[in-house]
């Protein structure tokens, strides 16, 4: 669930690619339903948070287990038309409908804290090795 140096320039392309990966990995039972959940959440409030980061997420009964996917683009792009936020790093979070522990809120909180570290952000933006990116992401401590 780590896609690096992609050439995507539109939110819909990014979300489709990440949702497709989640489907291939068996993390969701229906790609269309999950993509719709993510897009509906995006329609409420865009999930670009600054620092070239977006954290789209969807809560759905088709999510078999909580997951986080990561996508890095070669070039930054505007995440939502009408907003100025440029994005280069995208974290897609999948949450089961019966999510009791609000794991996505804990991850978003911990990720946001970690992303205040400029060196950490730059490593995620520049790293081209999947294993090294995985290690960086594993350093984010999500307390359950």
From TrEMBL:
GO MF annotation list: protein-N(PI)-phosphohistidine-sugar phosphotransferase activity
Pfam hit, one: PTS_EIIA_2
Protein keywords: Phosphoprotein, Phosphotransferase system, Sugar transport, Transferase, Transport
Transmembrane feature ranges: none
GO CC annotation terms, alphabetical: membrane
Gene3D superfamilies (alphabetical): Mannitol-specific EII, Chain A
InterPro entries: PTrfase/Anion_transptr, PTS_EIIA_type-2_dom, PTS_IIA_fruc, PTS_SugarTrans_NitroReg
GO biological process: phosphoenolpyruvate-dependent sugar phosphotransferase system
Domain PTS EIIA type-2: 1-140
Protein name, per record: PTS sugar transporter
Species the sequence originates in: Enterococcus ureilyticus
